[in-house]
Amino acid sequence: MSQKISALTLCGCLVATAVVAADQPQFGAAWSRNMVSDERRLPETFNPQTGQNIKWVAKLGTQTHSTPVIANGRVYIGTNNDEPRDPKHEGDRGVFMCFDEKNGQLLWQLVVPKRHEDAYMDWPKMGMSSTATVEGDRVYLVDNRGAVVCLDAKGLANGNDGPFRDEAAYLTSPTNATASPRPGAETKPESLHPPADGKLLQPGALDADILWRFDLVAEAGIWPHDAAHSSILIHGNHLYLNTANGVDNTHKRIRAPDAPSLIVLDKTTGRLLARDDENIASNVFHNTWAAPSLAKVNGRTLIFFCGGNGIVYAFEPIGRNAPTGEVQKLKKVFQFDFDPSAPKTEIHKFSGNRRESPSNIYGMPVFVRDRLYVAGGGDLWWGKNEAWLKCIDATQTGDISTNGLVWSYPLEKHVMSTPAVSDGLVFIADCGRKFHCVEAKNGKPLWTHEIKGEVWASPYVADGKVYLGTRSGNFYVFAAQREKKVLTELDLRTPISATVTAANNVIFVATMTHLYAIKR
Questions:
Q1: 0.90 exceeded by the pTM?
Q2: Greatest alpha-carbon span in the chain
Q3: pLDDT in tens, 5-41
Q4: Are residues 247 and 381 in contact, defined by beta-carbon separation less than 8 angstroms?
Q5: DSSP structure string for 64-107
Q6: DSSP letter, residue 34
Q7: For 301-427, where are the alpha helices, taking DSSP H only?
Q8: Which residues pair with 93 in a beta bridge?
Q9: Which of 214, 389, 444, 453 could lock 471 by a disulfide, CB 3.0 to 4.6 Å apart?
Q10: Terminal CA-to-CA distance of the chain, rounded, Å?
Q11: Which string of b and e fits 159-193 if b means at least 16 CB within 10 Å?
Q12: pLDDT surpasses 60 at 44
């Protein structure tokens, strides 16, 4: 009898483990984008020097701003080409790597030439900054050139699937590569042309297989700035994504004021189906950084989006069957001015002003129980120091800038993070070297902690812990509770931009140079 009970208990434990051990195929939890995972049995600490709790380590480039995602036995992350894995890919490139989840072996990579007509369109050495979204055997990504690509999860090793077959030309540097012009000089977006000698890089088994490609510059009319930073949201047959439309190299001019900030593509073909119609682009202070989220509010599905103009929007998703050849306009449900007292006209004259400027939003809007949690404020490089964490009532409609605010909590200085909302608590880190825990219901501060370094990553809650890396290379693990408790502080010696990801009882931590798989 005791053996039978033990067997049943063991079976129950295995089932429970299987329930919480799962892939993490996109940035943030499900559609809500909350930085919270149901994973269990995760390590509290690790040590790369001694190997404690280290499952494997993979070498990356020298700049890694992309967060790892895990799906179907593979780990995906973007980096640069300063540590090339294939000698045919030389020089500055954006690189997107696919590793074996079991052992960290490189399975394939997408290596894309940088834009050359203007350094501010594809910043040198920045690499591939966007985070992938995976569904089945397809990987969706915005690459460093500002193109949305759909990739075969198995790479070219199983053949070149279509309809896109021109990988050789896409991996080869264009002939019209030129030095970056002086600020203010008129430049035009380059197109990819074969080199004059006709020699194309021949892709091999280690290269990516592009299934389709949508060029945001040529086909959506955007002007990219600094780097494409996006995380594609999948809803049914559609892809929702921010375009990275921004200022030019003067930081005082929008070259594409009529371009969309939020678009919808067909996930099977890459065809443009819909865009926003809110004139967002003309008032973008720096760039369109924030990816969209989605939730059901009172039985109604909504797309939430933070524009580069500092406005938080809710849109209705488009219908299942979009009209052929007609780009729809997304229907707005509400708008919320995140910083109503900020300048609204001639906004770029405030560029570089640390006391007064518009606000923008880098992190994603997080939906939990009819409320949106958004962090934003003055731009890290060009704006004022002020920043806030705000809670918005997502059940309202129209202009809810006044009546939609539930609470506002001041942060120390600038903010790049997406909030993590767990068990009635909100965790957020800012660039003023402070980590915050506040009440989700009213924004009441519970505790703060002085940390070493600015934070570009987001806090990540899993297994009763909060994981957080900083730009100084320090890595923290806090207890996810109302009373402050620091469980671990490590010095990883290399800056961290990426958010931690938990999947299948493993946490994945990316520094600028290495990807660690950590298992208890």
A1: yes
A2: 83
A3: 333 333 333 333 334 689 999 999 888 999 999 999 9
A4: no
A5: --SPPEEETTEEEEEEESSS-SSTTS-SSEEEEEEEETTT--EE
A6: B
A7: none
A8: 113
A9: 453
A10: 32
A11: ebeeebeebeebbbbbeeeeebeeeeeebebbebe
A12: yes
